[in-house]
Amino acid sequence: MKPIELEKVQKIIDGFKNKEVYVHLETTNGAYASHINKKAYNVGAYIRNAKVSFNQAKIVGNGKSYRVGLKMEMGWIYAEGLTDWTIHEDSKLLMAGHDREGRLMVSLQISETPFSY
Amino acid sequence: MEKHVVVIYPHPDDESFGAAGTIAKFREEGVPVTYLCGTLGEMGRNMGSPIFANRETLPDIRKKELIDACEILDMDLKMLGYRDKTIEFEDRNQIALDLKSYLDKIKPSLVITHYPDYAVHPDHNALGAAAIEAVRLMPSEDRPIVWAQAISNDYEEVLGKPEIENDITAIFDKKMDAILAHASQAQGVLGQRRDEASGDIDLKEIAKHNMGIERFYIWKY
Question: Which CATH superfamily is domain A2-111 in?
Answer without folding.
Answer: Hypothetical protein YojF (2.70.180.10)
